[in-house]
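name: query_chain
kind: protein
chains: 1
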Amino acid sequence: MRKRILIIIVAVSVALTAMATEPYKIFPVPHEQYVNELIVSFSASVNLVVENGIDEATINRAVQILTEHGLAVKHSNALVKGETNVVLGIFGGHNKNSLGLRPDLKFFTNKYRNKYDRHILSLGSGDGVAQVTIVGEHTDAVFCGLASLEQMLDQGTTNLPCVTIYDYADVKNRGIIEGYYGVPYSAEVTKDLFRFMARYKMNTYMYGAKSDPYHSRYWGEPYPTTITPEQQRTGYLTQDMMRDITRVAHETKVNFIWAIHPGKAFANAEDPQVLDKIMAKFESMHGLGVRQFGVFVDDVGVPSDPSIMKLCAHNLTALQQRIDHKWNKKGAAAADTVKPLHYVPQLYAHGWVSQDRAREFYESLSSTPSKINIYITGRDVWSVPNNSDLTLVSSWLGRDLSWWWNYPYNDQDPTKLFVMDTYSNFRDETHINNLASIEKKLISVNTIIINPMQQGELSKIALFSVADYTWNSSAFNSRWSWEAAIPAVVGKERAEAFKKLAPYLRYYDNDALGYTIDNYYKSVKSGKANHKSLLNELREVNEACQVIKAMKNSSNESDRLLYNDVRPWLLKLETMAAEAIAHFESNDETLVDYDNNPDFQFETLNGMGEDISLKVLTAEPANKLLMPLLEWLRKHSKNNQ
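structure:
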């Protein structure tokens, strides 16, 4: 066993003076940063000291971060003088009584007791070199603290300001629900998302891909051991793929919740074996590494018969009891235990029915174990999380709610991308209320997970900001968060190029382009055609396309996966810009068939259960402004330009 030696480096450093300055740009935005005048550097060799209770995933993450920043790591049970010590510890147990911890640790017992993943990160000075301590309420909280340390080290390992960060999450479960109607993410994309989530303190990924037949149509059957190339292309997963996915989930501390969709069978009184079938599938998934489960009965019709509602509640309760009896009995190995169920009911948008009927429905579920997470999407399918819906439904249900947020979900607009900031995306998405706002403080909610686009890598942009919001809601700024998301997703060296392209990759183009085009039209009408500003803009767009196209051959897998996502939109935008430039430069332009060019097309799946079909769609970037400009240019001779 590791020696229990929780040490607060705050005591090694001079007392920090509370200041409003924030020396480190960290996302999600920390709740409190306090800096002093000291500047420190890391020694080339770092001594990692680990408390009891810190698990292997957290230790491995610490080693990964330190080594990736050029530091040699060694392990010991004691501080080493003259070297940087990185101490990972857990507050609690006999620590607070026997080791004389400083008053800083009242943070864990006072006003923040209802927050989540609480931790203190201190970068101080000792023996002339940097000293780091991360103390969390549990090992998962320390893991979150490491995400802040990683971003601090991105600034370098020398001449760093000393700082103490007190941090926590406003929402307990934060992440993704892969629940759209379309091609499920590949195993590579899913694992890459896990790694991204770990970097930005997200901890929840619920898998309920509607077009995965082993989630819905064949919900009672185990995943296959082999699949054909065609099946893999349409999102099938093998047992080995699923086992690999859960391995990476455990490494990144992402709770991978595998959900089953038995549909109407869950409330079928004539199928008394349904729970046996579900448990058999859960046992199969447990063998593949899954340690949390969900049950979906969405999109099969809302029951009005009280007996059906009662049966759903009974089966849900019985299923949780079976899980606890199977895996959570006293003495069970921690690695085998299973966390509480997540449940998506038939009525997830309470505005579908009258308020009296909605109350009856949710009250029927109030008798189920309170630890079960029950999901809503708000009043409507596309509602943005808000206190009005949360307060109302939680009053009927008698517990905090989980929110399935259909954002930046594009299976209703599959030819469009939503890669702008949160409020711009709200405006662009057909089904979201343009006037929706982000509340500064949410109540009665324990989970917010987003249903993303069918392009998992591009969904990271919105996911980054949702991570920012659910961690520190009051500090959330839509534009600032977006500005930080772009380099986090595409890399600092490509950030400016992507920012240039993002407004054009969307369906509605760059708003400013409209003024430039209008001015050009006016100049043509006046007889003094002037296309200089428009041509310069198109050249900049084309140059930015070349920067992002280079991701195709990157040595980094995340880059290649992102290129694969954006390819149809990027290549079409590049071609559109090139054609317009050719018109203005009086070059011979090739008239492209933008509707049927395979370079601009992608495949998607529709439906669920037995009604799944594959079809080809064409990307629609810059469709409102640039495409009409091309049509206009084609109709007019070069002499009129």
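note: The chain has a mean pLDDT of 91.
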